[in-house]
Design brief:
Layout: E1 3-11, H1 18-27, E2 34-38, E3 41-46, H2 49-62, E4 68-76, H3 84-95
Length: about 120
């Protein structure tokens, strides 16, 4: 797959958006795309931009609200095929570790990492 995008579709409402976001994510199942949902959006991989745009439009249309906010950020790497996982792997290889930090959860209280400089 050569087109990777970050899609965020959400109704503009005060209460929980989980049901509406689930409808948008479920709409992607009708298309030949792979995707992974995270707290800030859904990463989608498709073979071409036409498929990507069609799937994103379906996700947008799946949210039944008076006002819907949709953001689509596209990485169309045309020189060679790459996957989202390959991009993460490259960062992790450079870091020499997984590209994850400690999880911060409001229910667990504030966590802070202290870095000591031995200079």
């Amino acid at each position: 797959m050569s087109v990777i995008a970050l899609l965020s579709v959400a109704p503009v409402i005060e209460e929980s958006m989980a049901s509406d976001v689930a409808d948008a994510v479920e709409a992607l199942d009708e298309f030949p795309v792979s995707y992974e949902t995270n707290p800030m959006g859904t990463v989608i991989e498709a073979d071409d931009t036409e498929t990507l745009f069609t799937a994103a439009q379906a996700a947008h249309d799946a949210v039944d609200a008076d006002r819907v906010s949709t953001v689509l950020k596209i990485d169309d790497k045309r020189a060679r095929d790459t996957t989202a996982q390959e991009k993460v792997n490259a960062v992790e290889e450079t870091l020499g570790r997984p590209a994850r930090g400690d999880s911060l959860s409001p229910t667990e209280g504030s966590k802070t990492k202290t870095v000591k400089n031995d200079e």
